[in-house]
Design a protein that fits this description.
With 102 residues, this protein is an alpha/beta fold. The chain has one domain. Helices cover 15% and strands 35% of the residues. It contains one helix and nine strands; from the N terminus they run βββββββαββ. Strands 3, 4, 5, 6, 7, 8 and 9 form a seven-stranded mixed sheet that branches. A two-stranded antiparallel ribbon has the order 1-2.
């Protein structure tokens, strides 16, 4: 996390509704009583390229977020969040949605 003016800056993540080809896509969902997540990395987003799109195993939502952040930081790739079930927790950071200017 960044330190700005002695305070920890909150991470910000863009919420989207569908897979984005230029970012790591973290999908969060509810399955029964569990909150789960997985990341999808399009082969087009990695500078050296991937032989195919990469989709991680489904794990707890928090573990999926940590894995996506680690992968994104190591490769300098943005993360977007798909969260149709409102799994996101405010302590993970700020979830925002792009709004077209009218």
């Amino acid at each position: 996390m960044d330190i700005v003016g002695g305070l920890m800056a909150r991470n910000r993540f863009e919420q989207v509704d569908e897979i984005q080809p230029d970012a790591i896509n973290l999908t969060l969902a509810r399955k029964g009583d569990a909150e789960v997540g997985f990341m999808h990395v399009p082969k087009t987003v990695v500078a050296q390229g991937l032989p195919a799109d990469l989709t991680s195993e489904e794990v707890s939502a928090e573990k999926a977020l940590v894995a996506a952040i680690q992968f994104a930081n190591s490769r300098k790739i943005p993360i977007v969040v798909i969260d149709h079930d409102n799994v996101w927790k405010s302590e993970w950071g700020d979830l925002w949605r792009y709004q077209e200017e009218e």
